[in-house]
Design brief:
mainly beta, Maltoporin, Chain A, 22-stranded antiparallel barrel, globular, ion transport, transport, membrane, Beta-barrel_TonB
Length: about 800
């Protein structure tokens, strides 16, 4: 398979395929002052061609076939222009664009986005891309066909707790922002998309940057970043009703409404969603609700937008996974049998976004934000020690009872708030400066309650048995500069970030008292892009990123055993091009880690299993991403990611119950956990009718190890999964569109697992226990979407 994909990409990326007859060239200027517009975007509707004007405002399409085309020209801050033309000879056409009276929503995220000429590895997904695959599954499942991505679901069907890894990096190492505002949990640094069900229905576009990427706000990007922009201005009023139904009693209902532009100034959009599913795994049901509201005011040179959105989830727990024995006999087994073993959480987001264009050269965008989160998970625990819950032993006659069955709730009640900002200055068309940053605060309470106990002793209802608070501040400021010199574009990006964290942890004497940690990071980035021609460019960059440990790394260690922050040096180089029938790119990267935190099995001085710093580890790889227009009705998209992911020296610790203590095993140059050496995807899309499409979506992931020992007894097997997606749009007199869709997942019924964990111990010999999260067998989702 690897050889086949390499051959296919080598063929696709050749520059000499399918020469045609004619060319289309010209220049684009500002209608107001005739200034040349460098970097304007042009596209042709009958091809994959999308190009940008050069530093002199010129553009050139080569090798076009005879026919009728619609040429679209756009530039930020100007009105988009569409021109229909007949091409039967070489043609020159000059365009003038007029300034828009409205500021576009894209300026909100422009400071943290990579552009077409930037030396950054990225993938853009449009609203249309997301809509095709949005049948109600969580956001990670809509990103499955992007390079190097591996997705997983606790409940197995993509609804509930889900996640995504990019280049083998878990969600705590993937920076996620919504309109430039950090979304990662401040303490754990993870992303929990279950708290925003059906959020994709309110997303306009997503940019996925791999590697360190450009400076942004929030958690450090140690494998990638997800830059999400929500609903933007609609051309006209609209309404939409979307419903999906499918396997495992899955049901999704979505209502969307929007006013379009009112009196040339105002717009309002709203969404209400509900998703329910029993899940593939037994007793892993989800009941999810969410809403999204947005109102915007468009001034002459300004934009003010208020977003309010919320998600409420109730999911039955499937966190424990399934061991080897049960996996072989009952893939849907769930060890939790208590009928209210649930996770319950609500998250409310408030965003006030403002953008102002002071002149054609100087602009500002900023945001104030507040997120309120509150909820608990409930669980049954058997034979727990009363003393661990602040309860006295129970004496009945001559019997002293020290343990009890009980039901407990563990709560999280947090507030996250702050501001982000960016100033952009473009003195000339070939010079750009950005100054941005953010200040955020997080205040989170963690506490536990006993709501029932077989032997309640001296406890009260909702007996609180622990309480601690985490308070974290995060300040960053970054400056970016880019300059274009003929065909070369140079950029420099420097970020300063300081983090202060107060938490309940252990001091030198192992007393559990309030602790404080402060960290300062300098994150520089340098790169260049060389424009080979109007269709392709070569780029290279070098970046450094730093990342603080997670909450558990701090709270479950002492000052003496507290881990160090992680450091990453990232080298990226690649070539990308856009042609009439083929668009694609190839990227080579090297990610060199210093003090990366990994699980080793070691017990520290406070008795906790913690992550430990490993001195040197790395990820080297090559990524390919391309689309070929085989015929006007048949497209083929391909991605392939080959990588080598290693720890140079790794020490494993195993509990020895026979002799006490732990034993150590030393390894050299082993594979990093959850880092497959190959990830590939294919999307074959065929339009047999004008309004209909059939697509075959294929994903292959090579084997992954559950830990860092490269032990084949502790691994996830490779899997090869195929989905079929059908869609058809009906045009009706009283409706804009009626769309029907069918998604058949795992049509070949592959039995596979995409996530898991392992641990070992010695008790009469070495025992290793693996736990897996099995993914669903063949299943379907059917959707109907009414737009009016």
């Amino acid at each position: 398979m690897k050889k086949f994909i390499l051959v296919v990409f080598a063929t696709l990326l050749c520059p000499y395929v399918l020469w045609a007859q004619f060319s289309l060239q010209g220049k684009i200027t500002n209608a107001e002052n005739q200034q040349l517009l460098a970097g304007a975007t042009l596209s042709l509707d009958n091809s994959l061609f999308t190009i940008q004007t050069n530093e002199k405002g010129n553009f050139l399409f080569k090798n076009l076939k005879k026919g009728t085309y619609t040429l679209k020209a756009s530039y930020v801050g100007f009105k988009t222009q569409d021109i229909t033309l007949v091409l039967d000879a070489n043609k020159t056409i000059n365009l003038t664009l007029t300034k828009s009276t409205l500021l576009t929503d894209e300026v909100i995220v422009s400071a943290t986005r990579a552009s077409e000429n930037s030396a950054t590895t990225y993938k853009n997904l449009s609203k249309e891309d997301l809509e095709k695959n949005n049948f109600g599954q969580d956001l990670p499942f809509l990103l499955n066909q992007t390079p190097g991505a591996v997705i997983y679901s606790d409940a197995g069907a993509g609804i509930g707790y889900t996640g995504i890894r990019i280049r083998g990096s878990d969600p705590t190492r993937i920076n996620a922002t919504i309109n430039g505002i950090p979304y990662n949990d401040t303490e754990s640094q993870g992303t929990f998309w279950v708290n925003l069900p059906d959020f994709a229905s309110s997303v306009d576009n997503i940019q996925i940057q791999r590697g360190v990427g450009t400076s942004t706000n929030g958690a450090g990007a140690f494998g990638g970043s997800l830059n999400i922009q929500t609903t933007t201005l609609s051309d006209s009023a609209y309404g939409e009703v979307n419903s999906s139904v499918g396997s495992y009693q899955t049901l999704k209902n979505t209502l969307k409404l929007g006013t379009g532009l009112i009196n040339g100034k105002w717009s309002f959009d709203g969404r209400l969603s509900r998703i329910v599913s029993d899940g593939y795994v037994d007793r892993s049901a989800s009941n999810l609700k969410s809403y999204f509201l947005s109102g915007a005011y468009y001034g002459e040179n300004s934009l003010l937008r208020l977003n309010v959105f919320s998600g409420k989830e109730r999911t039955f727990q499937a966190w424990n996974g399934i061991n080897d024995e049960k996996l072989a006999t009952n893939r849907r087994f769930n060890s939790f049998t208590y009928d209210d073993q649930t996770d319950n959480y609500q998250q409310d987001h408030y965003q006030l976004l403002y953008s102002k264009s002071f002149s054609s050269q100087f602009s500002f965008n900023g945001a104030l934000h507040y997120t309120k989160g509150s909820g608990y998970y409930e669980e049954f625990k058997d034979d727990e020690e009363l003393a661990n819950y602040g309860l006295d032993n129970v004496v009945i006659g001559n019997q002293t009872i020290t343990n009890t069955d009980l039901i407990r709730r563990r709560w999280l009640d947090n507030d996250f708030y702050g501001l982000t900002y960016a100033f952009n200055y473009t003195p000339t068309s070939d010079l750009n400066f950005t100054l941005g940053g953010a200040y955020n605060e997080y205040d989170g309470d963690h506490f536990g309650e006993v709501i029932w106990a077989k032997y309640a002793s001296n406890g009260n209802i909702r007996q609180q048995y622990y309480f601690d608070n985490g308070f974290k501040t995060d300040f960053n400021v970054f400056g970016k500069a880019s300059i274009e010199l003929n065909k070369v574009s140079l950029f420099a990006d420097l970020q300063y970030r300081t983090v202060n964290y107060k938490f309940l942890g252990f001091d030198n004497n192992l007393n559990n008292v309030t602790q404080e940690a402060s960290l300062d990071f300098i994150n520089p980035k340098l790169g260049f892009t060389y424009q080979l021609n109007t269709q392709g460019n070569f780029y290279a960059s070098f970046s450094i990123a730093n990342k603080e440990p997670n909450r558990n790394d701090y709270t479950e260690s002492s000052i003496n055993s507290r881990p160090k922050p992680e450091n990453l040096k990232n080298i990226e180089a690649g070539y990308r091009f856009k042609g009439q029938t083929i668009t694609g790119g190839v990227n080579i990267y090297s990610m060199l880690y210093k003090d990366q935190l990994v699980l080793t099995g070691q017990i520290n001085d406070v008795g906790a299993y913690v992550r430990s710093n490993v001195d040197n580890s790395y990820r080297n790889g090559i990524e390919l991403d391309g689309t070929v227009k085989i015929t006007p009705t048949f497209n083929w998209g391909l991605t392939a990611a080959f990588s080598q992911n290693k720890v140079k020296n790794f020490v494993e610790f195993i509990d020895d119950y026979d002799n006490g203590g732990q034993i150590q095993n030393n390894f050299s140059k082993t594979d990093l956990a959850f880092s497959p050496s190959f990830v590939g995807s294919s999307t074959l899309a065929y339009k047999p009718f004008k309004n209909g499409e059939i697509a075959l979506l294929t994903k292959y992931v090579s084997k992954q190890y559950l830990d860092n020992t490269s032990n084949d007894a502790r691994k996830l097997n490779a899997f090869f999964v195929n989905d079929i997606r059908l869609g058809y749009d009906f045009r009706l007199k009283k409706l804009k569109k009626l769309s029907l869709g069918l998604l058949v997942n795992n049509v070949l019924n592959e039995l596979y697992e995409s996530n898991g964990y392992t641990f070992s111990y010695i008790a009469g010999g070495l025992t290793t226990e693996n736990y897996y999260y099995p993914q669903a067998e063949t299943n379907f989702l059917f959707s109907m979407n009414l737009k009016f």
